[in-house]
Amino acid sequence: MNELNFLEKYQKSTERNYVERVISHDKAECATVAGHWGRDYWDGERQYGYGGYTYDGRWLPIAEDIAAHYELKPGDRILDIGCGKAFLLYEFTCAVPGIEVTGIDVSSYGIANSKEEVRGNLREGAAQNLPWADNSFDFVYSINTFHNLGLPDLKQAVMEMERVSKGSSWLCVESYRNEREKMNLLYWQLTCQSFHNTNAWKWLLAEWGFSGDCGFIFFE
Fold first, then answer.
1. What is the residue-wise DSSP string for the chain?
2. CATH assignment of 8-27+59-217?
3. Is the CB of residue 146 less than 8 Å from the CB of residue 106?
4. pLDDT over 90 for what percent of the chain?
5. What are the pLDDT digits (tens) for 139-196?
6. Rounded Cα distance, 108 and 124, in Å
7. Partner of 44 for a Cys bridge, out of 15, 30, 40, 186, CB 3.0 to 4.6 A?
8. CA-to-CA distance for 152 and 157, rounded, in angstroms?
9. Which of 90, 131, 105 lies closest to 37, judged by CA?
10. Whole-prediction pTM value?
11. Which of 28, 122, 29, 21 is nearest to 79 (CA)?
């Protein structure tokens, strides 16, 4: 299992006030609202989630890096588990013209407000119950989704991701390497259910038969 952090540059360019996140609003209430995955989470006030998540092209370099690493080509089928508004999926169609994209997400709001060009390839559903046959996709990935699942659902989702992939996959979650990053994650997160350091994540993925690569988002 290789650790590949394609989002590292993007994450470092984002500034966060971790303490303010905790003291400025009722964090428990904000987390409850965020967990409905509706308008408040995507396009409401910042304390509930993204604070407005709109397309701005930032995902194209990431799509290009991932496509180059996994040697994706026209005609390949790729799946985004937890696609949200599917901005990255859309960028794959720009980076690799002719690629076939599919996405799934629990948020009906996210899908309804997704990139119009790929919206017809998206469906509402859960990561732990993927509605596709074994080995359906040439490349499967998930970003910022699996840490939102508790252990029983997390295990099932990992096994489902492995099942529908032909072999190439990349799973990216929030994690930490030291006490400072752990505390920042606890301050900042709204929807995270599985808090593990990088070694624990790698152990769990290997234990559940995941053969792909992993990546981590850190809160430094």
1. --B--TTHHHHHT----HHHHHHSS-HHHHHHHHTT-SHHHHHS-GGGSSSS----STTHHHHHHHHHHTT--TT-EEEEET-TT-HHHHHHHHHSTT-EEEEEES-HHHHHTS-GGGGGGEEE--TTS--S-TT-EEEEEEES-GGGS-HHHHHHHHHHHHHHEEEEEEEEEE-BSSHHHHHHHHHH-SS-----BHHHHHHHHHHTT--SEEEEE---
2. 3.40.50.150
3. no
4. 91
5. 999 999 999 999 999 999 999 999 999 989 999 999 999 999 999 999 999 999 999 9
6. 6
7. 40
8. 9
9. 105
10. 0.95
11. 122
Amino acid type, 35:
G
Question: Which amino acid is residue 219, in one-letter code?
Answer: F
Could you tell me if 91 and 59 are in contact, meaning their C-beta atoms sit under 8 angstroms apart? Answer: yes
How many CA atoms lie less than 13 Å away from 220 in the CB half-sphere?
A: 9
Tokens describing residue 24: 């400025």
